[in-house]
Amino acid sequence: MERWKGRVALVTGASVGIGAAVARALVQQGMKVVGCARNVDKIEKLAAECQSAGYTGILIPYKCDLSNEEEILSMFSAIKTLYQGVDVCINNAGLSHNEPLLSGRTDGWRNMIDVSHLRETISYIIHNKCSSMCFCSHSCKVTFIYYL
User: Fold this and answer.
1) How would residue 145 be classed by pLDDT, with cut points 50, 70 and 90?
2) What CA–CA distance (Å, rounded) separates 102 from 61?
3) Between vectors from CA 15 to CA 12 and to CA 19, what angle results, nearest 5°?
4) Closest listed residue to residue 22, CA positions, set 53, 50, 62, 54
5) Residue of 81, 67, 49 lying closest to 13 (CA atoms)
6) Keywords in UniProt for this one (predicted)?
7) Which residues contact 46 (CB under 8 A, 6 or more apart)?
């Protein structure tokens, strides 16, 4: 993890569960972590806990609805202004869509996929040889049992 010390990570869905655990671990290792979610109250609490624990990195809470392109663009603009870009992106945010694949509405599935994949990160990955991206697609699941 030494090579990542001081680098910038974006963790989506950083308010609870896997996202919060990943954000904490990266801050503990000395990274600057932008943690985003639709509600940042829990991320703000986590940031205070990380600071109190004396972790060498920093957690920056950022309110962003990943189904809203304007908010995504605004977040990436802010990250670029503050840190010149993203070195690591953990696409952890997700939502579930509880309609059957074949008979459900397409817009719900599009929304689920839009939230799970951030196009904006790709430009940073292309221009930065040390960049990494991870997709945690735990909520993008399809159950075909109904169609057997």
Assistant:
1) very low
2) 38
3) 50
4) 50
5) 67
6) Oxidoreductase
7) 14, 15, 20, 23, 24, 35, 59
Structure confidence by residue, pLDDT tens digits, 70-117 = 999 999 999 999 998 888 888 888 666 667 767 777 776 666 666 555
Q: What whole-number distance in Å separates Cα of residue 29 and Cα of residue 122?
A: 24
Instruction: Determine if residue 43 is left, alpha or beta; phi over 0 gives left, psi from -120 to 50 gives alpha, anything else beta.
Output: alpha
Other beta carbons less than 10 A from residue 40's beta carbon: 19
Q: What is the pLDDT of residues 108-140, one digit of tens each?
A: 666 666 655 566 666 766 666 555 655 555 544
Q: How many residues does the chain have?
A: 148
- List the chain domain ranges: 2-147
Whole-angstrom CA distances from 33 to 12, 50, 124 are: 10, 11, 16
- Dihedrals φ, ψ of 76, to 5°? -65, -35
Give the type of residue at 63. Answer: K
Q: Specify the CATH superfamily of domain 2-147.
A: NAD(P)-binding Rossmann-like Domain (3.40.50.720)
**Residue bearing tokens 């972590």:** 33
CA–CA distance, 58 with 40 (Å, rounded to integer): 15
